[in-house]
Amino acid sequence: MSQPPKPRGLGRGLSALLGDEEVAATVAPAQTPPPAAPEPLPDYPTKEAERHFPNRPPLTLPIGQLKPGRMQPRTSFEGIETLVESVKEFGLLQPILVRPLRDAADTYEIIAGERRWRAAQRAQLHDVPVVIRSIGDMDALQLGLIENLQRADLTPIDEAQGYRRLMEDFTQTQDDLAKTMGKSRPHIANTLRLLDLPPSVQEMIRAGQLTAGQGRTLLGLADPALMAARAVEEKLSVRELERLAGAEKKQGKAKAGKASSGEPKSADTRALEKRIEEALGLKADLKLRGIGEQTLLTLEIRNFDQLDTVVERLTRR
User: Fold this and answer.
1) pLDDT, tens digit (0-9, with 9 covering 90-100), for 161-202
2) Boundaries of every domain in the chain
3) How crowded is residue 193: how many other Cβ atoms within 10 Å of its Cβ?
4) Phi–psi pair at 72, nearest 5 degrees
5) pTM, to two decimals
6) Domain 12-154 adopts which CATH fold?
7) Active-site annotation, residues
8) Contact assessment for residue 153 and residue 205, using Cβ atoms and an 8 Å cutoff
């Protein structure tokens, strides 16, 4: 069995923390066992198994001593049936990365490998291979994100929430995240933007009803939830959504222009104009912009003396 490939873009900080081979064995995708191996590998831990996990002590722990990680970015663990069958047939081929819990003796928190731990539970394993490391919360969250991004599909919303947690709780910048996660800065920024969507739309993305691309298209629309429901019902593509969004924005601009030029002014608007003219001695014009309560005030100033008078009155304290 060949060594698992080293993941790219993990950041020098994490590699220094665990070692390149340690990180690779923890977060790289599991290798598919050969269909007909001449001699099956001995159960972990043995010297043969240790050779396949360099720099790692041969250690196993009872599965009940492991607890789900507090820093786990994934919120859903559905669809692990294939993994369960693999664990039943071949065992757990890669160890679970854990850290000791300070307030509970002989109990360990999972940093990377919670899907494997859950699959091992369902496969009724009693002991699982582990790697124990003392790791802080920020590194635990980063490793959890890296493992989920590289090992299995993480929903865009869970990914975005993980990024936001790193930024808010550990003062990471988008540039820091891009280097650590091996992602581009625009990818980080665009993923974070999904958290500006209404909660109902975020749940559609988390459930797989909408893609991240569709979600980004919905941003900035007057009613993203309504358009999202239409996209799901009519199975609209990103391109079709973009056309509808563009048409909605054009329609909004047209209404705004009509409101500012064609509709007669209300009595309240004319009264406000008169009060401004009396206070400044200048002709005033108020126009509603058609976007919420935005209003444009125009003053007719004929010379610099009038301009100086306006500035003096506006800045007087």
Assistant:
1) 889 888 888 788 999 888 888 889 899 999 999 999 999 999
2) 12-154, 212-259, 264-315
3) 15
4) -65, 120
5) 0.53
6) 3.90.1530
7) 114
8) no
Exposed/middle/buried for 225, CB within 10 Å: 0-12, 13-18, 19+?
A: middle
Give the model confidence (pLDDT) of 134-168 as tens digits.
Answer: 888 888 877 877 776 665 567 899 889 889 888 88
Strand partners for 170: none
Which ranges of the chain have pLDDT less than 50?
A: 1-56
Residue labelled with tokens 């786990």 = 72
